[in-house]
EAL domain-containing protein
Amino acid sequence: TAKKVQHTPYCLFSKDMRQQLSYLHEIEESLHRAVREKEFQVHYQPQYSLHSLKLVGAEALVRWPRSDRMVSPCEFIPLAEKFGLISAIGEFVFETAARQLQAWSHCKIELPRVAINTSSTQLLAGNFGDVVERILQENQLTANRIDIEVTESVMMKNIERNGNNENANCLSTLQEKGLEISIDDFGTGYSSLSYIKHLNVDRIKIDKSFIDDIEFNKEARSIVRAIIKMGHSLGMKVLAEGIETPNQLDILKALECDEGQGYLFSKPLDAAKFEMKCLSA
Ligand code: C2E
Ligand code: MG
Ligand code: MG
Ligand code: MG
C-alpha cells in the first residue's frame, strides 16, 4: 500500500532527525571537553627514504581515545571543523609533536622531521605564522624539522574562493621561515594541475589509492610514474603513501620514488612504541 502523507504540524523534526541532532549535540559537547581536557593523543607513522631505507621523518596523526574505542580522525576532524575546534586541535598536535621531536633528540632517536597535517581554517587563521614561531622557539627546533601537509583540495578551495591564493601566500611565508611544505593525498583532489606551478612546494605525497593499484593496474602505474617525473622536474621530492606490500615497494623504487610510508614499514605508533621501534632498528 502507498504511504499516506502524514500531516503533523507540531512535529518539525522526525524522530530520526531528532536523534541525529542530539547525537551531533553530544559529539559537540564531548569534542569541546576533549579540547579543554587535552584528551587527544598523537601517533607517529615513520617515513623512509626508499633509496637507503633510512628513517627520514614521521607523520603526526591525531587520535581520540574514548571509553569504548579509538575514534578515527576521519570521523571527528570534519566535525571539529564544523564546530570551530580544528585550530585548537591542530595546535595541540603541532605542540605535542614538536615537544616529542625535541625529547627524542635527547635519547638518541634521530628523527629528521615531523609532518603536521593542517586544515585550511588553521592555515588561514591570521596567527598561524606566530603559532609556528612560538612552537619552534619553545622547543628549540629549526624550521626545517617541520613539514606542513596541506591537501590539494584545501589549496584549490582557497584559490577559487579568494581569486588570489591566500593559502599560497601563507604557505610561502612558512617556506620563507624554512618549513617544508607537502601536498597531501595528491591526485585525488582536482584535475587541474595549473596551481602546482604557483606553489613551489617541497614534496608531493601520492595518495594511497594509486599505490593500492600500482601492482596490477597499468594505468595506475603510469600515473604514478608521471607524478614522480613531474615532481622531480619541478624540483620536488615525491613520497608514496600507504605502501603495504614488498612488490609495491619494488615498483616504487624502480620508478625512483624518493620516500614512502605505509603498513609495510609500520602502522602509526604511539610515542613509546615509536621509540622502541627506532631504538631496536
Ligand atoms: P592522511 O594525512 O592522508 O594520513 C594518512 C592516513 O592513512 C592515516 O590515517 C594513516 O593511518 C593511514 N595509513 C598510512 N599507511 C597506511 C597503509 O599502508 N594502509 C592503510 N590502509 N592506511 C594507511 P588516519 O590516521 O586515520 O588519518 C586519516 C586522516 O585524518 C589523515 O589522512 C588526515 O587527513 C586527517 N588527520 C589526521 N591527523 C590530523 C591532524 O592532526 N590535523 C588534521 N587537520 N587532520 C588530521
Ligand atoms: Mg597527511
Ligand atoms: Mg595523506
Ligand atoms: Mg591519504
